[in-house]
Amino acid sequence: MKRYTFYIFIFLITICSCADKPTQEYPKIVYMEDSIPLLGSPDTAILAQFIQGDVDKTYLYNNLVSMSLILEPPAIYHCFILEKVGTDKQIYYLKIDDALKYNWIPPYDSLSYDLSLDMLKTERAGTTTINRSTGKEIHYKPDTAMQWSSKFEQLPSMRKNSEEYNKIVDQCDDAQQLADYCNHSLFFQNNSFISSDDKNELLKRLISQTQAHFAEYFFDFDRPSFDIYPIIEGQFYCAVLYSTYKVEDFSNFKNEILEEGAKRLEWLSNEEYPQEHSDNYGYRIYSRYLLNMNTENLNNILNNIDEIENLYNQSSMMFCTSRPHLDFRLFFFNIKYDENNKITIEKNYYNKEYITTTRIRGYYWIY
After folding, report:
1. 32-74: per-residue pLDDT in tens?
2. How far apart are CA 27 and CA 15, in angstroms?
3. Cα(99)–Cα(77) distance, rounded to whole angstroms?
């Protein structure tokens, strides 16, 4: 906290009028040697960190809008959206934290024990490998693999049957926050020189990132870089694919992505996994725990494919997030405008009950 003290004193807090909203007053902050209105209420430490430029990633969406991201473990995303439209400037702050709610697990006696496990203690325990950098042998303890409890395999059904989980998910408000940004945005509220196509493209990118991509990830700064990299890059790291994309063709999504994914999962479970676990000496990169959970998730999707297709046809946008290994996450959004062109965004995270690999990160091995 001490390193932020100086920046607390450089805040220039005044009350001023925004150029495009003469009746609305917002406080201003000094940022990049300019006095800029700030919408939203970040806490002092986070605001100082942003002003200092100590951010984890800056996304340049176009020549008018950028977003700076500050990560706060275990799953909070502080987003500062800077807009420069004509002669006007403003910063809008979003605190994206629905991942904390989606990842909630109903408590049970052995939950702390289960969450203390990872692939090294279970499915790689007792094996010996060669360090590719040094050539030295590494033996993974314990010699006898630890076992997770049966309830650890029942998280989706436990969530589905939990009234508490439904109440927690009902509190998710990241989509409403994004809509509020749009309704106060210099970019989205401009009707003179910014086209509707440009607005739709930026909205698609913001929904993809803040509402789908950021809903997925727990992280830990003490873990290797791959724990953070997929969050800020969102595409590809080493041999594992991370992606979030808007579904444009449902038939292609169903027949080529989901059904091919099911075949791939079956091959991994029945062919690749037994082969890599056939001896005590080698690299084990696939987890039976994740293969089983991701298979259950994909079977649930395929068994309800008609309902999902109806949601696709009835929704404004559908997004899919893909994670290791063949873990598909489905999101549906309804976007509406009222007579004053104010936007509302309704979000449906379809298979949220199956989310496991964000809070439980230690079961996929990246090499």
Report:
1. 989 999 999 999 999 999 999 999 999 999 999 999 999 999 9
2. 5
3. 10
CA distances from 194 to 187, 204, 336 (A): 7, 16, 19
**β 21-31/15-18 pair status:** antiparallel
Report the C-alpha gap between 174 and 83 in whole angstroms. 20
Which of 327, 363, 310 lies closest to 117, judged by CA? 363
pLDDT digits 0-9 by tens, 106-161: 999 999 999 999 988 999 898 888 877 888 888 889 999 999 999 999 999 999 99
Cα 352 from Cα 86, distance rounded (Å): 41
Phi/psi at 346 (nearest 5 deg)?
A: -105, 135
Q: Are 99 and 218 in contact (CB under 8 A)?
A: yes
This prediction has a pTM of 0.89
The enclosing H or E element of 45 equals helix 44-52
